[in-house]
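Entry 14. Ran structure prediction on the chain below.
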Amino acid sequence: MDNLEKIFNKTVDKFIQNGILLNEARCEVYLLIEEVFGQTKKDLFINPSKSFSEDEIEKFNRLVSMRINEKIPVQYLINKAYFMSQAFYVDENVLIPRPETELLVEEVLKLPGEKTKIIDIGTGSGCIAIMLAKKLPEADVFASDISENALKIAKINVEKLGVNNRIKFINSNIFEKIDPSEKFDIIVSNPPYISIQEKENLQIEVSGHEPEVALFVEDKTGVSFYEKLAAQSFERLNTGGIIAVEIGIYQSESVQKIFEKNGFANIKVIKDLLGIDRVIIGQVNL
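Output, structure tokens:
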């Protein structure tokens, strides 16, 4: 019977043969091994010869087969994705949290000034709102989403990550159903920013399984959500308030212009680890 090391190596090879890049293959196999066998990356080095029951092997192989044949992302197969070292529940109602979005949270945490009232627009799994609530225990955090099913997942994660009663959830299309008297210190969002025309160019793991409403917009350059968000946000921020958003590749200049057109000042662009413009921040002038 194969031991832990053989299972890992054989599965990584199998993933690579089916078009998954090496680094992604390794990360995905680590996730599967942790879920099915309860073994971490560290265990792989400490006890590589560990063996497992036939039932465990069968379950593992079944998940591997679904990943390869049905192109289901591993995170959906195991209902788990890590974000800022925390394990979030995910399914096909919400986007899988990405490392790029961690940069958005980190930049919000670095902001000077008031952070007493924050809203996350398009919260999805709740990863942004929940991590801000955990890191800023004195803040009032709101989380909105157009999808009721996404909000159900976010509420699961609020309980799971110990910030229940810290976050107020709202089913809304941007600010449409949010009390007009509510004003915020920070508006944060990782919105849909892929043109629907790009759908056919995406990996089937993304286009075939992640929720379209969280991925795609109708315009050719993918910036229409930013236009709506910026137009509605200026009046919803307190003096000196901040809007912070994640952007896609090649969208930096367009989103900066949208922010400027809607009255935001002190606009700042932050690059990710690959040197790509990834986060844009604007401010209501003091």
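The two ends are 67 Å apart (CA to CA). Will compare against last week's run tomorrow.
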